[in-house]
Amino acid sequence: MPLMRESCKKAEDIHAIYELKEKLGEGSFSEVRVAQHRLTHKHVAVKCIRKKALKGKESMLENEIAVLHRIKHENIISLEETFETPTKLYLVMTLVTGGELLDRILERGNYTEKDASRVILQVLEAVKYLHQLDIVHRDLKPENLLYETPLQDSKIVLSDFGLSKIADQGVLSTACGTPAYVAPELLQEKTYGKEIDLWAVGVISFILLCGYPPFYDDNDTELYRQIIQAEFEFDSPYWDDISHSAKDFIVHLLQKDPKKRFNCEQALQHPW
């Protein structure tokens, strides 16, 4: 059955319009390739989804794509157009070339508070925009924060958005994928909302400032216990030179009780 309605172009014509090139990455039900527009020569990223792998989840996918079409924000990768064949679905997305945030931090060796604050500001602007559309990202982590270009002052864009929810069976499977960033209420299988994204912003801020995560243990049970208790410390000597303001910002985000946690507006107003 055709998955896409009006927003989709004619079936097999993606190859007429784009030349698909090297593979950028691969997931359980899709792969991402660089592609070049045959007329304008513009480069894009194309997510090729195998429909067979999505049996029974078609309506979820349709909803996700409808959501992606609504998203237009400078700090979020956007969906430009969609194509469909009988076996595959192609999503044409913005191509970003600056690499992952973490790679750049490792490359530079040091990351000042000012740098970290600039990154988090952009992440919060993107998350605030999603939350205004009633969308919860649910999978914020440094690997999903990309630089748009290799330039030093490149902006940050949020990626891997939208389709993350399709692949999971129940709430916890995504949670377990990257436990270090998961909010306590997700681990306790309570109902959750936009607050989980702000918890993740707190974890990312912590890592940007000191280079290691606030919750860490080789034993998952112990790791989950730390998260559920929101047990973390600003260890010496790593945190000795970091401002009180930065620590205060993190404390307000890593609140065990989602009701006490900062929302995007409060976080954006914080002096840090």
From TrEMBL:
Pfam families on file: Pkinase
UniProt entry keywords in alphabetical sequence: ATP-binding, Kinase, Nucleotide-binding, Serine/threonine-protein kinase, Transferase
Residues that hold ATP according to the record: K51
UniProt-recorded Gene Ontology molecular function terms: ATP binding; protein serine/threonine kinase activity
Superkingdom per UniProt: Eukaryota
Protein kinase domain boundaries: 18-272
Family from the record: Belongs to the protein kinase superfamily.
Protein name: Protein kinase domain-containing protein
Organism encoding this protein: Ameiurus melas
